[in-house]
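#onboarding

Welcome to the new folks! Below is a worked example of what a typical request in this channel looks like: someone posts a single protein sequence, and someone else replies with the predicted structure as tokens. Don't worry about understanding the tokens yet, we'll cover that in week two.

Example request:
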Amino acid sequence: MFDRTVVEALGNTDPGPLMNLTPNTIEEAGECGLKPALAMLGLVSKLGGGIEVLSYEGPFGVGYCNAVWTN
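Example response:
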């Protein structure tokens, strides 16, 4: 759930779903990637542009998302 929410928030450039995660969900995920994702979403909201999610995989129970800031 956590990984899917991060990828969707980045793809939609919408921090709302991340802000609505429960503390328990964040703790269970180890919150890995949450702060960088929020930082990227903040940059886009202030400086414009968009976010392109290049890939996501979770082969070992840990998710890896690659995204870039686009103009």
